[in-house]
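[audit] Reproducing an earlier prediction to check determinism. Same input, same settings, fresh worker. If the tokens differ from the archived copy the diff job will pick it up downstream; this log only records the rerun itself.
[audit] input (152 residues):
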Amino acid sequence: MAVRDVLHVTETKTHRSADESQKLCNTFVVFFYDNIQKAKEAIKRLSSHGTQPLQFDMAFTGSPLDDLRPPTEDDVRRLISTVPNKSSPVDCIPTSVIKSCPDVFAPVIAHLAKPPLLKKKELNPDVASNYRPISNLHTISKMLERLFMARI
């Protein structure tokens, strides 16, 4: 597997104008907002049947998420140093290899954490549901999730 494949680099357009980027961001906002509304409706339906699924959940009182800075290579290097030495059999790259070569993997993982990735290159990039959830990846996905959680 080539680095090009890991990064999902294709011959298609990889850079967007500011207007295109804003439009895609707005598409994601609508997509995730709609999914949250669906989840809320499902919870309401559960509540209407006599159960209280959120009775122990505390209301969010923190500051709003207005900015999510991209991870740096240094962020990734620090994360790599703390990842446990275990790997899944489905991982293409064992964790031990990633940990032994942080200067090679940090730029790649930092890049993966920045752009949303299409599930398949032939899918319409303007449809939010055509993008890959981070959790579909393996060991590297766990690192991406931790980088994201550190920003929230």
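[audit] rerun output stored. Observation attached for the diff report: The chain has a mean pLDDT of 80.
[audit] end
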